[in-house]
Amino acid sequence: MNKVIEELGKIGIVPVIALDDAKDAEPLAKALIEGGLPCAEVTFRTAAAEESIRIMADKFPELIVGAGTVLTPEQADRAMNAGAKFIVSPGLNPKVVKHCIDKGYPIVPGTSNPSDVETAIELGLDVVKFFPAEAAGGLKMIKAMSAPYTNMKFMPTGGINADNLKSYLDFNKIVCCGGSWMVKKDMVAAGDFEGIKNLTTQAVDTMLGFEVRHVGVNLTSGEEAEELADTFNKMFSFEKKVGNSSVFSGTGFELMKKQGRGTHGHIAIATNYIERAVYHLEKRGFEIDKDSAVIKEGRLKAIYFKGEFGGFAIHLVQK
């Protein structure tokens, strides 16, 4: 998989935007980055698309800006020359795909049926767009269509929103989803970039789904841990479960048999997608202790942040 597409997969959501005026490109890009989505697919449906891409690429080199609705090789060249880092098309035009491959442009062409996917495989691609996602059968169609094509991944776009986002991203053949619900055209026209920033933040929070899983409390011995668990059972009917290094009291408290991470203990935060969470949290400036990673069956299951927060260590855990 191309490195640009891999990074889009870590981000999880690609805002799909159509700009009628290039003056909106800079404040919109800033809103997306500050909201937590440092990427954008700028569609070539408008005359302002090329200049908008150029502005975004020049002002915000950290933004992964791509060109969408690319229908011709000439449009692909214009987009990449303006600073686009990837190309997206609504359908699969072999002429456009071959041109992009020959030029070294990352391209994600649209597909909606098995014949499209087989053409993409023949052209050497391993990631395709699925468009229009909901109208073309949605997640059920992607699952059915992907079964014979074990190495193909999908980027569904069209009808994706906050309500169905997680159902799509839960399927392991989906790299990321394209959507426009956080970049509403009327908000762009009104210059409401603060509102777009807030919707973008909400989209990221919805995707990651952070929840407190449990609080770990450092105690001095197994006896002390069991005694506290018995007390919580008497007080709140929390079930006691004794393990090798700790005693769980219900699901909310892990009572450590000896000093563990953190001065007082640790806090476990569950997330829908731990690897995406690591990416986004590092972008927010938090350091992750890579040596603390817990890997099971080749997948990251838990990992700690560096440092303490109010005397507690904090770690992420995969839901």
TrEMBL record:
<comment type="pathway">
    <text>Carbohydrate acid metabolism; 2-dehydro-3-deoxy-D-gluconate degradation; D-glyceraldehyde 3-phosphate and pyruvate from 2-dehydro-3-deoxy-D-gluconate: step 2/2.</text>
</comment>
<dbReference type="InterPro" id="IPR013785">
    <property type="entry name" value="Aldolase_TIM"/>
</dbReference>
<dbReference type="InterPro" id="IPR000887">
    <property type="entry name" value="Aldlse_KDPG_KHG"/>
</dbReference>
<dbReference type="GO" id="GO:0008675">
    <property type="term" value="F:2-dehydro-3-deoxy-phosphogluconate aldolase activity"/>
</dbReference>
<protein>
    <recommendedName>
        <fullName>2-dehydro-3-deoxy-phosphogluconate aldolase</fullName>
        <ecNumber>4.1.2.14</ecNumber>
    </recommendedName>
</protein>
<keyword id="KW-0704">Schiff base</keyword>
<dbReference type="Pfam" id="PF01081">
    <property type="entry name" value="Aldolase"/>
</dbReference>
<keyword id="KW-0119">Carbohydrate metabolism</keyword>
<comment type="subunit">
    <text>Homotrimer.</text>
</comment>
<comment type="similarity">
    <text>Belongs to the KHG/KDPG aldolase family.</text>
</comment>
<dbReference type="InterPro" id="IPR031338">
    <property type="entry name" value="KDPG/KHG_AS_2"/>
</dbReference>
<dbReference type="InterPro" id="IPR031337">
    <property type="entry name" value="KDPG/KHG_AS_1"/>
</dbReference>
<keyword id="KW-0456">Lyase</keyword>
